[in-house]
Amino acid sequence: MAIDHALLVTPSAMGRIDAAAVASGVDGYGLMQAAGAHVAACVLAHYPDIRRAVVLCGPGNNGGDGHVAARLLSQSGVPVIRCGVPPKKGGDAARADAECDLPLRALDDWHPEAGDVVVDALFGAGLDRPAGPEIAALIDRVRNADTPVVSVDLPSGLSGRTGAPTGPCFQAAHTVTFAALKPGHVLMPGRALCGEMHLCDIGIPARLIVSDDPVWRNHEELYRNQLPTMSAQQHKYSRGHLVVLSGPLISGGAARLAAMAGLRAGAGLVSLATPPGAVMAQAAHLTAIMQRSIGDEETLSDWLEDDRLSGFVLGPGFGDLEKARGFCGLLAKSGRPVVLDADGLTAFAGRVDDLGKLFDGDVRLMVTPHEGEFRRLFPVLAGDESLSKVDRARAAAQLLNAVVIYKGPDTVIAGPDGRAAVNSDAPSWLATAGSGDVLAGIAGGLLAQGMPAFEAGCASVALHGDAGRRAGAGMTAEELAASVKSLPCD
Ligand SMILES: NC(=O)C1=CN([C@@H]2O[C@H](COP(=O)(O)OP(=O)(O)OC[C@H]3O[C@@H](n4cnc5c(N)ncnc54)[C@H](OP(=O)(O)O)[C@@H]3O)[C@@H](O)[C@H]2O)[C@@H](O)CC1
Ligand SMILES: Nc1ncnc2c1ncn2[C@@H]1O[C@H](COP(=O)(O)OP(=O)(O)O)[C@@H](O)[C@H]1O
Ligand SMILES: [K+]
């Protein structure tokens, strides 16, 4: 069976999929056997020098997978100790426990030795509250002994829905999960707590692995059909004219980075709208990028009469928050797509309702907050610990009628219609000054070419990561902007 690596399924949806598989005739105990076998195989493959497997089993089906793994590891010749709590009666886990003839010791009946590998089968999808003191002490003991951990489905203590620990949590070296990744495997800090991920097929039919609330890993199929294409009939104006609103003399570099990235993302023309006092300084740095002196709302209004201007980036290095609000109002009224980033976002801290009202109708606002900017704009959402990053981005997208690119190592792209994607494979060296300006420019470049906002958001984040990989570790934002690759030809 081909696994859909792009679909993220919440633990509760996974429970329904599991039930549907069993209802359709799949043997539930067979699924547990397959799950346990994958776990045992992972241990054997990654720890060939293992001296002893310490399998920690919880009361539910996660523990059931552990009982199977313990039996198979033992049959492979690995010394195994099995610790845990007795399984709930009557289910698959109880059967797996009965079929394993290793004694089930108490949870604390284990003293770390060199060569131990822990198999963490305490809690998976069923975790619904913080682990109690006994589990907390065990997690501490494993951590202090520096024993490697292979977690079954999820590191025990981690919420598969939010990616946040509910209390004490294992740090796994490997996590073996089944049928589909869960949001907690890709959202931070969950992704880091999982270690290396292994997604395994246990025989649940692909047609059943669906979700009524899908979240995707960011991947090409989400946006490929909407990417701008190039053909012989085109001229530069038909490829869009992106305008980046530039700030004062001292901070013009951010707008230049965005402009260069927009050009490389395929906009036919890119102009900086520069305050008069900064025009000469900018001119010294520009070649392909054009410039227009725009000092106030009146000159901007006049320029907006040119309906070939097809997209705007407002915020990088912009500085003047009041002016940013005024400019944003004019851009909104122009009916064209706008990317708000950095100072363009801070300008609306405490005023998100005003921002939402500016952009009603078709979705043409994109906002690109990092964690701090998100917190400034949406303090209530940011402070609600029951919400995942995906939930927060979706709620923000609805409040603003915008596509939200909520940045970080686990960038979430969300639309007001509820569509959401998580990008978790960007290189960590994107965390460098000016990198966000480049992302805003890519997004502006794609929107200026007429790409719909959600797809443009997903594509921008992917192109940004690709550019980072191409530029390599140690890159600067200038090199990142220069590494943005223009789009495929048709
Ligand atoms: N999806 C699939 O297709 C397949 C899934 N499989 C496996 O099944 C796993 C899900 O199994 P599961 O539903 O039995 O949940 P699991 O995580 O074992 O928790 C069990 C119980 O623990 C309890 N509990 C919760 N939190 C607690 C806490 N902090 N401290 C103490 N107790 C706590 C709570 O019970 P309660 O005490 O509330 O009665 C809960 O119900 C999944 O992760 C995967 O490994 C495979 O077998 C193959 C097929
Ligand atoms: N650890 C990380 N791994 C991958 N990408 C990251 C990481 N940290 C930051 N990024 C990305 O780098 C960019 C930084 O943007 P931002 O914080 O706005 O920086 P700046 O304001 O300096 O341009 C964002 O696209 C973000 O998603
Ligand atoms: K686990």
Description:
With 490 residues, the protein is an alpha/beta fold. The protein has two domains: 7-213, Rossmann fold (3-Layer(aba) Sandwich), CATH 3.40.50.10260; 220-224 and 233-483, Ribokinase (UDP-N-acetylmuramoyl-L-alanine:D-glutamate ligase, 3-Layer(aba) Sandwich). The chain is built from 19 helices and 18 strands. An eleven-stranded mixed sheet has the order 1-9-18-17-16-15-14-13-10-11-12, sandwiched between helices. Strand 5 (116-121), helix 5 (133-145) and strand 6 (149-152) form a beta-alpha-beta unit. Helix 2 crosses helix 4 (92-98), helix 8 packs across helix 17 (435-448) and helix 17 (435-448) crosses helix 18 (453-471). The radius of gyration is 26 Å and the shape is elongated. The two termini are 32 Å apart. Residues 62, 120-124, 151-154, 156 line the site of potassium ion.
Structural class call reads: alpha/beta
Q: How many E-type strands?
A: 18
Mean pLDDT, all residues: 96
Gross geometry: elongated
| CATH H level, superfamily name of the largest domain | Ribokinase
- Main beta sheet strand tally, sense and closure: 11 strands, mixed
* Oligomer status: single chain
Unreliable segments of 5+ consecutive residues? none
Beta-strand level of the residues, as a percent range? 15-25%
Bound molecules: ligand NPW, adenosine-5'-diphosphate, potassium ion
List the total number of helices. Answer: 19
End-to-end separation in angstroms reads: 32 Å
Overall number of structural domains? 2
Domain YjeF N-terminal: 14-210
Protein name: Bifunctional NAD(P)H-hydrate repair enzyme
Cofactor: K(+); Mg(2+)
Binding site for K(+): 62, 120, 156
